[in-house]
Amino acid sequence: MPSKRALVVWGGWDGHEPERVADLFTEILRQDGFEVTVSDTLDAFLDADRLAEQHLIVPIWTMGQISPEQSQAVTRAVAEQGIGIAGCHGGMCDSFRNDTEWQFMTGSQWVAHPGNDGVTYPVRINRDVTHEITDGLEDFDVTSEQYYLHVDPGVNVLAYTEFPLPGVSGPHEANPCRMPQVYTKMYGRGRVFYNALGHQRNVLEPATPRELMRRGFAWAAK
To answer: Please, are residues 109 and 149 in contact by the beta-carbon 8 Å criterion?
Structure first.
């Protein structure tokens, strides 16, 4: 019997390639010893018995609508039962824009990507924090969208990017900052891991982003 179980639920806007990202995450999880259940309906969250058996929930759902019953099933599972939740940009913190409890649980909400797609920028490991998810990893460059988030001040920032990027103009230029891109937090008893990268599957395939997801899944599932 596998010692770890994960529920992957995908859907929403096709532009974020939710099915392809679900395939990648399922591959990573299974290679790491998880028994994985995959669903393309949010009603998967309403199966209370199956949800209670999980160690990890991996939402991959963009710009959709979640019912109060579906949302509350997840927030209760995480906060009260201690089930972990982990995900990436298009699937977790750009998901249900009208559900503030979901945003409270997951720790941030995407609001902008100055310069749009095709921007090359560095993601820097936070050297002020020692954590098993980032231990031994180096800074890396990404060519994608650079994500500006509204972030829970209580998150534990593991990696960040810097705004503004040279040559990318916009109203954000007036407020230079380090923007969290990878973080952990607690929501009640449950562990939360988020990686803001992941506009599409190819952004998550290189070695370091993939390893961040693998380690983040493992950490959140404990």
So the answer is: yes
Give the pair of three-digit tokens for residue 207. 């070695």
pLDDT by 10s per residue, the chain, length 222: 458 999 999 999 999 999 999 999 999 999 999 999 999 999 999 999 999 999 999 999 988 899 999 999 999 999 999 999 999 997 899 999 999 999 999 999 999 999 999 999 999 999 999 999 999 999 999 999 999 999 999 999 999 999 999 999 999 999 999 999 999 999 999 999 999 999 999 999 999 999 999 999 999 999
Side-chain-side CA neighbours of residue 3 (13 Å)? 5
What CATH number should be reported for the domain holding residue 115? 3.40.50.880
Report field, pTM of the whole predicted structure over 0.90:
yes
Counting the structural domains of the chain, the total is 1
Q: Which residue range(s) make up the domain with 40? A: 4-221
